[in-house]
Amino acid sequence: MDHDEESFEDREIRTWKLKLIWAWILTIPIAIVMLSDRIFGMSLIPESYMAIVLLVVSFPVVFIIGFSTIKSGLKGFTSFYFNMDSLIMLGTVIAYLTGIIAFSGLIAIQDYSGISAMIMAFFITGKYVETKARGRATREIKKLLELGAKKARVLRKVGKSGKEEEVEIDVSEVKLGDIFIVKPGEKIPTDGIVVKGESSVDESMITGESIPNDKIKGANVIGATINQDGILYVKATKVGSDTFLSHIIQLIEEAQSTKVPIQKMADKITSIFVPAILVVSVLTFLGWFFISKDLSKSIGVGVAVLVIACPCALGLATPTALMVGSGMGAKKGILIRKGEAIQTMKEIKIVVFDKTGTITKGKPEVREVYSKIPGKSLLDLVGSLEKQSEHPIAKSIVAYAESNGVGRFKQVKKFKTLRGRGLEGEIGRNKIVVGNSLLMKEKNISVKEFENKIDSFEEKGYTTMLISKNKRVIGLIGVADDVKEDSVSAVKKLNSGGFRTVMITGDNERTAKAIAERVGIKEVLANVLPEDKANKVKELQKRAMVAFVGDGINDAPALKQANVGIAIGTGTDIAIEAGDIVLANGSLNGVVSAIRLSRATFSKIKQNLFWAFAYNVVALPLAIAGVVHPVIAEIAMALSSITVVTNANLLRRKKI
Amino acid sequence: MKKIKLKIQGMHCASCASNVERALKKIKGVNEANVSLMTNKCFVEAEDGASVEEMKKAIDKMGYKVVGVEGA
Predict the structure, then answer these.
(1) B71: in domain
(2) Do B38 and A320 touch (CB under 8 A)?
(3) What's the pLDDT tens digit per position in A337-363?
(4) Which residue of B has its CA nearest to A133?
(5) Which residues of chain B have a CB within 8 Å of the CB of A79?
(6) Hey, what's the torsion of the CAs at A103, A626, A278, B25, to 10 degrees?
(7) In angstroms, rounded to a whole number, what is the distance separating the alpha carbons of residues A581 and A564?
(8) Labelling A93: which of A128, A405, A492, A561 has CA 20 to 30 A away?
């Protein structure tokens, strides 16, 4: 999506508007003349001139102002890919031809040429209103497009002295690694990492999170968010189409091309709709002529059938509602990637949460240390071993050791990671094992002496690591990962909404239960190795439809396995590819909103499809029965598609 | 396998969208074609060998115009 494309849509609206004005300037006199003649029996124009005047005035409306419609309709007949315009073209041209035939006096027939102009004028009016309403449906997305900053102030070496100076350039010229300066109140030009300064940044336009985030050196910032009070020096880490904002926009655009299953039926109908109506119209004409022998009436009925049929309402029902829904979501940091998720969401009974990083902040900290040997020596040993690992818990222990005076870590030999259980290695001549009690059991290390201590750690919700030296436990470290502030309220809402909430984690039962209890989750799947999460989801699926909420980086298989995968992230750390729905803001309240949004959008889609079907089911037989005048038929058709698009826009009234 | 985005001008109804999808799917190498009426774009999944020119021609024949190609 680029900017000239926007004007492309605006241009379309402008063109329709222009056509609309000219069509009515010519059609209103026609309507006045025809109505006064028909209803009041008053001839404003002498009878003998009437036919020629109507033919002359209607011609430009149908064939000049309506040129693109006539042309596109004709293309349908030459290529056998019929479309809506084919119906309008045939309807108006036939109506116009009756005028010529009547004028020529060959056959005595009613002159419908004025009607042809009126049909075209109403068709154009309908298109104009519909195009405008469609534009409104994309309002939020357009806003996203315009969100990006235009200019950036970067530091560039100027002259021979190599002195750095501020230079203002277009955002498109910012290169990776450029350092740019953002003053208070300014938009951050592109994604980057803070290298100097501190400030708070309002990220609400991207994540929906209303409270500004504090940014210090080393923090990631997102392009298009607004710097609040300090000056930030930021190094560009992503530019152009790689930025977070660009990703979001691409994602929403791509979601538009995915289908909501309920639409399938409507799609099947629209693909044969126009040819079917052509056939029905011909049959109606023949039937009427056969029975009534009234050529004029038969033509009128045939034309009414052509113009009353409306595949548009059917085709627009889903995409407009989906567009408005995704726009509303995007504003709150809820990105719908697959249309299907909206439909599936309504069947979801079980919501499974990954623990780390989803329910909790994902930043474990050491809370308690119990040691049989001097504390510092214990930290020295554990720290040295953990230093070799990238695991978040390992990092928290290293950080703790460092802040407690362990300066240099020892060399480790024969280091080994025991996945999901712990680590082992040799320091000096000592064999050190760090891990959970399962690992100790596996290594035949007795933990009997420490059982009470382990219990008390686990009841506090600590992930408990035991440290053994030469097969003897010498201490315990309790690590805890704080629960996100709003996890509790989100889970409460889900529970009262009738969902079964489940937490899945690699932690042992007791630790996991302590945390689950804190947030109000009743069911816990503990001791689940990362690779088994998807299998656990599969098991739950035997009972009901499952939504999985996880961070998308470690949980990709489980997100895929679930009926709806909700990937949760903070700021730029989102694995966008993994989820059906992506939450740009780490809060679990997003899950509640995403469920609400999906339900509201889907019910809007259902409503729209119902109206579109009902309209055609009622209107077509009426037209065939000959009780609808062709002009009224055209007005009804225009109204039906306007109704569908307008109804989609009404989705915005729903609170999510 | 490649993913192409075609920006198409002139589609203004659901039948148009389904015409474009059907016509594109008839082209050799095109596996999937999805039109979004809201963005006036068609998302095509095709074998590497599939010809974009051929897609353009097919769309042109029906009276619509390809005004932009991304990802070809």
Answers:
(1) no
(2) yes
(3) 999 999 999 999 999 999 988 899 888
(4) B38
(5) 61-63
(6) 130
(7) 8
(8) A128
What's the CATH number where B8 sits? Answer: 3.30.70.100
Residue-level pLDDT at A149: 87
Q: Are the beta carbons of B15 and A84 separated by less than 8 Å? A: yes
Cα-Cα end-to-end distance for chain A:
27
pLDDT in tens, A401-437: 999 888 888 899 999 888 778 899 999 889 999 998 8
Q: Which domain holds residue B17?
A: 2-42+49-65
Q: Is pLDDT at A161 greater than 90 in this prediction?
A: no
- The partner residue sitting opposite A311, judged by closest CB among B15, B36, B41, is B15
User: Minimal Cα–Cα distance from A612 to chain B, Å?
Assistant: 12
Q: Which two tokens stand for residue A192?
A: 């980057």
Q: Per the CB < 8 Å rule, is B16 touching A319? A: no
| Residues on chain B touching A644 (C-beta within 8 angstroms) | none
- Rounded mean pLDDT of A239-264? 86
Min Cα distance A271 → chain B (Å) is 6
- Closest-CA residue in chain B for A11? B9
- On the question of pLDDT at A48 being above 90, the answer is no
Listed in sequence order, the DSSP H helices in A263-294 are 263-292
A380 is known as an active-site residue: no
Half-sphere exposure of A284 (CA within 13 A, CB side): 24
Strands A463-469 and A430-435: antiparallel
**Which of 21-60 (B) contact A at CB < 8 A?**
22-23, 34-43
B14 and A84 in contact by Cβ < 8 A?
yes
Tell if the CB–CB gap between A319 and B38 is shorter than 8 Å. Answer: yes
- The position carrying tokens 């469920």 is A595
**Given a cut of 60, is residue A2 above it in pLDDT?**
no
Please give the ipTM for the structure prediction.
Answer: 0.88
State which amino acid sits at residue A635: I
Secondary structure letter of residue A215 according to DSSP: E
- Range with the poorest average pLDDT among A46-55, A449-458, A571-580: A571-580
Contact between A79 and B62 using a beta-carbon 8 Å cutoff: yes
Per-residue pLDDT of chain B (72 residues; tens, 9 = 90+): 888 999 998 887 788 888 899 999 999 999 999 998 888 889 999 998 888 999 999 998 888 889 989 876
| Residue B61 counted as domain residue | yes
What residues have CB less than 8 Å from A451, skipping those under 6 apart? none
Residue B72 inside a domain? The answer is no
- CA–CA separation, A239 vs B12, rounded Å? 35
Contacts of A254 in chain B (CB under 8 A): 43
Count the Cβ atoms, other than its own, within 10 Å of residue A450.
20
Lowest mean pLDDT among A105-109, A119-123, A576-580, B23-27: A576-580
pLDDT digits (tens, 9 = 90+) for A488-497: 999 999 999 9
d(CA B37, CA A270): 14
Higher pLDDT, A574 or A168: A168
pTM across the whole model = 0.85
**Distance from CA of residue B35 to its chain's centroid?**
7
Does any CB of chain A come closer than 8 Å to the CB of residue B18?
Answer: yes
Q: What local confidence, expressed as pLDDT, does residue B3 receive?
A: 87
Phi, psi of A162 (to 5 degrees): 75, 15
- Asked, for residue B35, whether it belongs to a domain, the answer is yes
DSSP A500: E
Q: Which two tokens stand for residue A218?
A: 């080393």
Beta strand A564-568 with A545-550 is parallel
Number of domains chain B contains: 1
